Predict the structure of Glycosyl transferase family 8.
Amino acid sequence: MIICSVTCADNLHEAKMMARAAKYHMPYARVVICLMERTIHPAALNVPWFDDVILAKDLGIPRFEGSIFKYSLLEGVTSIKPAFLRLLFDRYPEEMNVVFMDTDIIAYAPYDDLLAALEHHDILLSPHRIEPNGEPLGYLHHGIFNTGFLALRRSEETMRFLEWWGQRLYSYCYYNAPFFVDQKWVDLAPALFNVKVWKHPGYNVAAWNLHERCRKIVREENGRYWLENNVPFVCYHYSGLHGMLQYCMNEWIPDRGNPLYRLLQLYLEEMDTMGKEELSEVPWSYDYYLDGSPITAEERKAYGSDVQAFESGRDPFLSRFGSREGDGGI
């Protein structure tokens, strides 16, 4: 099994935490990180929990620079996900299963149930919620599925899905409606591909589903956590760490003795240990032209709407978009 994620240098502290926990519970797993930077940052080198680090520009994406110039950091990192997953199946032909996790997901148990499900299904998608709630409008904004966690089995069907998803993210992976980066596209996947909606309540527990009764931790035993009916608590998604997560925990889990509060405190402490203070200040290398001048949001937007500039094949990072050069500019 491969466990993988995409990130930039400013988030490598989270990537190391994700990888460390994955290796602790699943030492047999291969952990691969895709780094969306021009070069591999020193903090990604010699990390004992990384088996491989791949630069996004080496994924084989056609006209890579042009494809990401129009995107913000979040959009750009998300847009390369299908290409990264396809490359992993090609690079490691002996591996049958690939699990993608956002860097802010921490494993607290082995993925045994998930691996068992992959013996019978090609594509496992994790819904944001598995119980009805009184605020369904969130689905319209963010999509039914959370693509921060998904699992794939090697198959022709999986390759068809990744090709289809990748084609759409190549041009339309914007944060703004109706896309919400890569997620709203995946709402269409169950109608088009052999998808298993992965409803195990112990996976991808997160701020958006803490209100669900089936997600509540009921006991701790020998370092493991359990939900009702002996269901294992497997992984926690720390998305919304700057306020949303804490708000939802306070709202839905008022008991401060709940293990989630201790897990959150340990997570925050480990972030500091892994170098958050320094790494979070690292600028994204694709936020700048090759001469070091910053790229504005207006320039990205203008390039994204200029089909001729993209079709020219010229690297838009060479000089400020719209400037005139000896070759006529772009």
In short: The chain has a mean pLDDT of 93. The two ends are 44 Å apart (CA to CA). The chain is about 35% helix and 15% strand.
